[in-house]
């Protein structure tokens, strides 16, 4: 099984950025632990702060991987293009968020990804990614 974890803008700052919301662990540290726990799954990871690079990665793996776990960060609430890219591929996508976006600012309550996603997981910290992964198993 091949799964891509795809992170959007500012998620490269995990472990440094707003630790009260996002925690102290870097995503790379979390990803290494996830790979150890799920050694039978071929896990891939890509992060970009650039919308077009996220879309290109969705197109690249969207017909050959078994699943995509996507935290598009703020692009979740602004990018019709990422929503369209998900609609155009075959690989199922699960939208994830570290924080509970519905307990935050009103603009974070809107997702352009959710209508085209298999599901949405939010508010469980980094465990949101693991819950999404488990859903593909």
From TrEMBL:
Enzyme class: lyase
TM helices/strands, residue ranges: none
Record Pfam families: DHquinase_II
GO MF annotation: an example: 3-dehydroquinate dehydratase activity
Positions bearing the site annotation: Transition state stabilizer: 17
Alphabetical list of PROSITE patterns matching this protein: DEHYDROQUINASE_II (PS01029)
Catalysed reaction equations from the record: 3-dehydroquinate = 3-dehydroshikimate + H2O
InterPro entries noted in UniProt: DHquinase_II, DHquinase_II_CS, DHquinase_II_sf
Family: Belongs to the type-II 3-dehydroquinase family.
Stored NCBIfam families: aroQ (TIGR01088), PRK05395.1-2 (NF003805), PRK05395.1-3 (NF003806), PRK05395.1-4 (NF003807)
Function: Catalyzes a trans-dehydration via an enolate intermediate.
Full protein name: 3-dehydroquinate dehydratase
